[in-house]
Amino acid sequence: MAYDHEEQEQLATLKAWWQRNGNLTSWVLIVALAGYSGWAGWQYYQRTQAAQAGQLYDELQNAIAAKDTAKVMRAAGDMQSRFSGTAYAQMSALSAAKVAFDANDLKTAKTQLQWVAEHGTEEYKSIAKLRLAGVLLDEKAYDEALKVLATASVAQFAGAVADRKGDVLVAQNKLAEARTAYLAALAATDKNNPGRQLIQVKLEAIGGTVPEDKAKADKAAA
After folding, report:
1. Average pLDDT, the chain
2. I want to staple 92 with a disulfide (CB 3.0 to 4.6 A). Which of 5, 20, 47, 79 is the partner?
3. Contacts 24+ apart (CB under 8 A), 83-90
């Protein structure tokens, strides 16, 4: 194909530019393509991991329904070793902890809850710590339970944490401190939360008094 003079000048200019910058341009393009390929590969890996973890979680739930404790624990262990970065791993550990607790296997329950407390998101960590403190309360490990509760700092669980702290302090016969904890629990718990009434009952059972304005508001709401 014949080129006119203007086209030949444009081709010459392009060749000269390529000679100066072609190598750099190629590397930039390679890096960009590699980056996209890596991102796409990571997205595929994440989707695959989530799908496989979901299947294993279903198996764990079926084992719970079948009361197959051994299979529940195996599934929870597999989840933690293979899919620790997914929410399914945290949910599985919490489920396994409940199964172990119901079977009076407090050691296994604590192990599962501690795993979530160390590896979970902040919300799951707080749930695990609340339940772990309950297990420690049953074991009469009161000081350890209070230490665990002190590290549960997610605001949405403030009422539950204070309530559990009150329970531990009552068990230690530290009633003045327990009253303070229950009052804090009331202050942090929404008035429409059905758990408020139980907190009030516990507070009054140890000689505490529900603040007048809150008591009236609760009665009006009821």
Report:
1. 82
2. 79
3. 83/49, 83/52, 83/53, 83/56, 84/119, 85/49, 86/49, 86/50, 86/53, 87/121, 87/124, 88/50, 88/53, 88/54, 88/56, 88/57, 89/53, 89/119, 90/116, 90/119, 90/120, 90/121, 90/124, 90/128
**Rounded CA gap, 94 and 109, in Å?**
9
19: its two tokens: 């000679």
Q: Which of 81, 72, 71 is nearest to 49 (CA)?
A: 81
Residue 54 has a pLDDT of 86
Neighbours of 102 (CB within 10 A): 12
The answer to whether 109 and 122 have CB atoms below 8 angstroms apart is no
pLDDT in tens, 48-104: 667 788 889 999 999 999 999 999 999 999 999 998 888 889 999 999 999 999 999
pLDDT in tens, 39-48: 454 454 456 6
3-state secondary structure of 25: helix
DSSP-assigned states of every residue in 92-141: HHHHHHHHHHHTT-HHHHHHHHHHHHHHS-HHHHHHHHHHHHHHHHHTT-
**What's the gap between Cα 1 and its chain centre?**
67
pLDDT of residue 37: 47
